[in-house]
Amino acid sequence: MAGRACEPGVERPSWWASAPGAEAVFAVEMIVGLTVWVAVPDSGDTYGQTVWALAVVFLFLVLSVLAPVVFLGLGLLHALVFTRPALALARRTGRAAAAVAWLCSVSAVSALLARFAGAPYLEALAWIAGIGVPPLLVAHLAHRSGTRPGTLVARAGIATPVLVLVAAAVVAAMSDAGAFKTYEPPTLVRAQYVGEWRGDDGDGAVRLYEGGDAAVERVAVHHFDGSVTYCTATGTWTERADDPRTGTRAGVEIDVSHCSGWEKTWQVTGTAARPALFHLVGDPDAGDVRILRRTGTVVTPPHG
Fold first, then answer.
1. Are residues 169 and 22 in the same domain?
2. Which residues on neighbouring strands pair with residue 233, listed in sequence order?
3. Which of 17, 33, 68, 272 is the most exposed place for a label (fewest CB within 10 A)?
4. pLDDT tens per residue, range 189-239
5. Into how many domains does the chain fold?
6. What are the angstrom distances between the C-alpha of 23 and each of 36, 74, 84, 247?
7. Measured between alpha carbons, how far is 226 from 74 in angstroms, rounded to an integer?
8. Are 101 and 33 within 8 A, CB to CB?
9. 85 half-sphere exposure, CB direction, 13 A CA radius
10. Same domain, 142 and 197
11. Range of the domain at 101
12. 251: Cβ contacts below 8 Å, ≥ 6 apart
């Protein structure tokens, strides 16, 4: 990576020419990475919530305008810390290994900062160093060949949509092939529903009894006007199979009296070892989720 700038009588390259295309390459990496991150299926439970197609289109339009600007700005910062000092050091020393050493050293320090934030050190180091390689390599080759920065930016702009489509297609193919682990709710038998189910905050409990009786104690009921009341009542419950037509999972129907606005349909979530019941509050696509987790086995029905 030793450059001609160190030779006598050769003019030092300008800011843009010192690492041509580094910012654009970094921006392309980030846009493709964002595409993969969005396209990879969520491995956790989405609780049946979906994003409207209109929202997806709107998000795509916003990102298509803002993402290049934001990522180019981040690319400037990345080149300032990683690429430009690496190439400058290589030109000054006349050794290509100096650029690699700089990239590895700065990546190691950055990974240490990421470690303090809770990220695994080796994983962070691999990602940071790996992201830094393409901008460094492209800038080095462009500098040697005399390719102008504007040409590289134009090429990056042309390559970006192609790479995005390729990345999305690869993720889709891998998803169809079962390469990604996706969440599957546990399958419960009737006896596994029997017991006490309590909210994550410790408040509110539902007790389901063997004979089909149910008892509800201070379970929050959310109303359309935004108000919240608390239901304490008795009733009955029945096991319910999943309904593919509506996308409703298996679970239970809990019928109680004297609780206005009570949501009787509860669906299965959690794991086989730690099952839970949930229902959506408010907007089915973006509302909150009320979760009850099983805590113990009920022996005595409420009427004793």
1. yes
2. 216
3. 272
4. 999 999 999 987 767 889 999 889 999 999 888 888 878 899 999 999 999
5. 2
6. 20, 8, 10, 45
7. 41
8. no
9. 14
10. no
11. 4-176
12. 240, 265, 266, 267, 268, 277
